[in-house]
Amino acid sequence: MIRSITRQKSDEEIDHLLDGLGRVFIIGCGTCTTLTRTGGEPEVRAMKERLSGQGRLVTGDMVLPVACDNLTGEALEEYGQQIDQADVLLIMTCAFGVQTIARQLEKMVVPALDTLFIGKENGIGQFDEICTQCGTCVLGETGGICPVTSCHKGLVNGPCGGTNNGKCEIDSEKDCAWTLIYNRLKDLGRLDSMRILQKPRNHQGEPSPGKFNLSD
To answer: Which of 205, 181, 203, 206 is closest to 194 using CA atoms?
Structure first.
């Protein structure tokens, strides 16, 4: 299961962002931030209690089924009056959800969370980064294992000198990405792929902000 991985901003930062804005409507998300426990119903409820305790007026709250969905606007309409009464929307979703909501409403929006990365759930409550969306994919030469995200150093031409018995020198509990790649390619009979020299990575290879047009 792929999710946007988030963490809540500090209370101090949220309070700073809400400075001078006394009437707040809180919005959470029923998918990613519910799963990561950063913006589901319990977290929205806790935020409401905290802000109310500060003397702020919470005009209402809701947890959207999917904050970044095309149907977000229709879901928001059900709370139109409560949203209209608010000075600001405090949004407990990933950055994509914040931007989706901002496009739907002419209201000041404040993100309550920081978006960290795109991750995959590999165990209960455990999420590992699987893609940085770098635009220079080498998965075809590495057996489908991404060295950019799986290796702490992002090495694309084999392991560093610190790998020890198949473990990473930075995190001894973590398998060395290039040991995993080697074993994978060996099982597939494709070890020759490791002889392909990857060019130095261009970390500015894609223009920013990015744009993709199917008609191009």
So the answer is: 181
Question: Looking at the structure, do residues 94 and 163 belong to the same domain, yes or no?
Answer: no
Number of domains observed in the structure of the chain = 2
Helices (H) and strands (E) in the chain, counts: 8, 7
DSSP 167: B
Q: Domain range spanning residue 185?
A: 132-195
Same domain, 97 and 178: no
Low-confidence residues of the chain: pLDDT under 50: 209, 211-212, 214
Q: Do 31 and 37 contact (CB within 8 A), yes or no?
A: no
Q: Within this chain, do residues 148 and 92 fall inside the same structural domain, yes or no?
A: no
> Any idea what the CATH number is for the domain that residue 56 is in?
3.40.50.2300
Dihedral sign (CA 169, 170, 171, 176): negative
Global pTM value: 0.73
Residue 140, SS3 per DSSP: helix
In the three-class reduction of DSSP (H, G, I as helix; E, B as strand; rest coil), residue 210 is classed as coil
3-state secondary structure of 100: helix
Q: Report pLDDT for 71.
A: 83
- Residue 89 to residue 114: CA distance in whole angstroms: 16
